[in-house]
Design brief:
ATP_grasp_subdomain_1; nine-stranded antiparallel beta sheet; 13 helices; binds adenosine-5'-diphosphate; four-stranded antiparallel beta sheet; 13 strands; 3 domains; Dna Ligase, domain 1; Rossmann fold; ATP-grasp; ATP binding; about 375 residues; ATP-binding; EC 6.3.4.18; D-amino Acid Aminotransferase, Chain A, domain 1
């Protein structure tokens, strides 16, 4: 999704792909194959490049440090990226920065976990510090026995270390996307609401509906403080929990997660903002002036295509095009698997209920379900 922006700006992208059939390899001409842990492949990749950046966090930091020492512009740097790789490091540092987070503790033994649960009403959320995504590596627990397997794996070194957090009684999940240049220029997009189903983002509404202005300002302020405090370069997504205020004041926000790259919560910007997160990430890591982040419409809804009954969701593109000519389809060229993120649809407009319904109808067609509006062209 960075390719169209790179092409327009005359930027040559070279991408290290794990598989010649991967989404990126289908659209990037210069796409050598190699593992993200392959030092030689990464050294060849950065030859002659102005900057090195990432589309996921699973990269070897010691190598990134060595490349930076050799003069490669690694953005974000390993010292920042570690906060998106390790949840314990992230929680500790955000605490030092005074950024509001759920109560948490590192836990290595069943007794430590039992003690924590005793202080949080008997329930908590255990997370692997590394390697989790889309809710894998997150488990709601009421007793240490619920994560006996993870505790054992952490203890014998075959699994990641663990943290436990209070189970936050959030009213909804919000996200803020922010971009930062090496010299410090920072821009945020409007705060969005992200709707999760089964631990996976299903829908994003931009901007977040009915957001209290004080909550909005707090969320934006947190995102900028995190970007600056961690010395992030490029795009940073800050996932937040919105929590009702017991005294009837503005809802509060707590940080759940960080991602240091273009993120699913920002896919709406491709069609819904003056500058997309992908263009902005390129600008930021190349130290170019950042683009305008203003929305192009009152509302933009992004709906993910999660799995499909079709062999190939492209078979339904004509139907979507016929039933909703303004819906923007983005497919990733991935093989269909149950629940897999195969693409997304962006719809913009002035009436939120209508925009949401249209995004849902388009994704339903791409998932091979009957069009709920009944308006699809049968051809
Ligand atoms: P991942 O790294 O897999 O994206 P997250 O830490 O974002 O994992 O957690 C996935 C989902 O689990 C969140 O979107 C949220 O719905 C729920 N969750 C995570 N942490 C908590 C918490 N402390 N309290 C309540 N729900 C949580």
């Amino acid at each position: 999704m960075m390719t169209p922006a790179a092409t327009a700006l005359g930027i040559h992208l070279r991408v290290l792909v794990e598989d010649a059939a991967s989404s990126a390899a289908q659209v990037v001409v210069d796409a050598p194959v190699g593992a993200a842990s392959d030092a030689d492949a990464i050294r060849r990749l950065v030859e002659g490049a102005d900057a090195l950046t990432f589309e996921h966090e699973h990269v070897p930091n010691d190598l990134l440090d060595r490349l930076a020492a050799d003069g490669v512009a690694v953005r974000p740097g390993a010292h920042a990226l570690v906060h998106a790789q390790d949840k314990a490091v992230m929680r500790r540092r955000l605490g030092e920065l005074g950024v509001p987070c759920p109560a948490w503790a590192a836990v290595a033994t069943p007794d430590e976990l039992t003690d924590f649960l005793a202080g949080t009403g008997g329930v908590g959320v255990v997370k692997t510090t590394r390697g989790g995504y889309d809710g894998k590596g997150v488990r709601v627990v009421r007793a240490a026995a619920d994560v006996a397997d993870w505790l054992a794996a952490a203890a014998d070194g075959t699994g990641a270390a663990l943290i436990v957090e209070e189970k936050v009684p959030f009213t909804r999940e919000l996200a803020v996307l922010v971009a930062r240049r090496p010299g410090g220029e920072v821009r945020t997009w409007p705060v969005v609401e992200s709707v999760q189903r089964d631990g996976v983002c299903a829908e994003v509404v931009a901007p977040a509906p009915d957001l209290h202005p004080a909550t909005r300002d707090a969320a934006l302020d947190i995102a900028v403080r995190v970007a600056e405090g961690l010395d992030v370069t490029g795009v940073l997504a800050v996932e937040l929990f919105e929590v009702a205020d017991e005294d009837g004041g503005a809802p509060r926000v707590l940080v759940n997660e960080l991602a240091m790259r273009p993120h699913n919560s920002g896919h709406w910007t491709i069609d819904g903002a003056v500058t997309s997160q992908f263009e902005q990430h390129l600008r930021a890591v190349l130290d170019l002036p950042l683009g305008d982040t203003a929305p192009r419409a009152t509302w933009t809804v992004m709906a993910n295509v999660l799995g499909s009954a079709l062999d190939d969701p492209t078979d339904a593109v004509a139907q979507v095009a016929a039933s909703d000519p303004a819906a923007k389809v983005h497919l990733y060229g991935k093989e269909v698997r149950p629940g897999r993120k195969l693409g997304h649809v962006n719809v913009s407009g002035d009436d939120l209920a209508d925009v949401r319904a249209r995004a849902a109808a388009a994704t339903a067609l791409l998932r091979g379900e009957p069009d709920p509006t009944g308006e699809a062209d049968p051809a």
